[in-house]
Amino acid sequence: MTAITFRPIYMERIWGGRQLQERYARTLPTPDVPFGEAWEIVDREDEQSIVDSGEFSGKSLHDLWTNHRAEIFGEELPDSPRFPILIKILDCADDLSIQVHPPANIAVELGGEPKTEMWYVADRKPGAKLYVGLKNLADKASFESAIAAGTVADQVHAITPEKGQSIFIESGRLHAIGAGFLIHEIQQNSDTTYRVFDWNRTDTQGNPRQLHIAESLACIDFDDHEPEMDIVDGETLATCPYFETTIHHLSPGEEIGNPNPERFSLITVVSGCLEDRHTSGETLLLPKSSPSIPATEKSCILRITIPPQA
Predict the structure, then answer these.
(1) Structural domain spans, the chain
(2) Strand pairing class (35-41; 9-17)
(3) Mind telling me the catalytic residues?
(4) Residues 6+ apart with CB under 8 A from 134
(5) Environment class of residue 29 by beta-carbon count within 10 Å: exposed (0-12), middle (13-18) or buried (19+)?
(6) Architecture of the domain delimited by 4-219
(7) Which of the listed CATH numbers 2.60.120.10, 3.40.50.1360, 3.40.1440.10, 1.10.1660.10 matches domain 236-305?
(8) pLDDT tens sequence across 74-87
(9) Predicted confidence (pLDDT) at residue 118 exceeds the cutoff of 80
(10) Of 147, 152, 224, 236, which one has the greatest count of Cβ atoms within 10 A?
């Protein structure tokens, strides 16, 4: 069975831009509109990846996961009603809000879903900053005072990363992406975000964006002080119970495939090109027992798998 590709879903965001068109030659739905997210792989009730060609053309990812799981994905996978990974490309032309995702032990109580994710920096403007964790002297008391004073930014740790670096954002970790990034995000299948600070911005009518102060304070890990970008362990960028992401730099003719032939993987072409014109920005699903795919030029590839379930 050959690689399966899906139609991206584009999300308009006030902080978005047009890099998806400029960098990845995408045809965006509407001209002159800021699109902040391309949902490349998603299986949610209100949003579905749809296969764009081949044997399963027109079928949803949910259909494949529900009705063809063993055939396409393999064994020892989560007993989940929906495909458990969501993959996005983020075009951040402006600062995102400072936010947090709920840990599993709190999410249900708050009416949300737990969400752990990772970011891979595909590109960034000089000096662009990620905001991750708290400054060393910050604690819950000082953070609550900063909320009241509108100075939350003074409590948050800033990092200036390089292109090609990555960072793991476990649920509970305070974070925001600053202006000037193109980021590949791999995450749990969740869409729960609690905004705690939006840089004191208002809309054209002078209204501030909705915040979730109580929920955020319940979720933030106040012991998470001044983290740095992750150190790559061989090819491994991130590993957790929900996903494992590895990075591969291929020369022309070198191949990428499933690390376990009896289980699927997701392949994201960050740069370069794979055979059959799988070009920069594209994410494809390699079904179990699929043949490996060679690079046709120098390429940077992310490979995402789900660790075997206990």
Answers:
(1) 4-219, 236-305
(2) antiparallel
(3) 195
(4) 143, 155, 156, 157, 174, 222, 224, 225, 226
(5) exposed
(6) Sandwich (2.60)
(7) 2.60.120.10
(8) 988 999 999 999 99
(9) yes
(10) 152
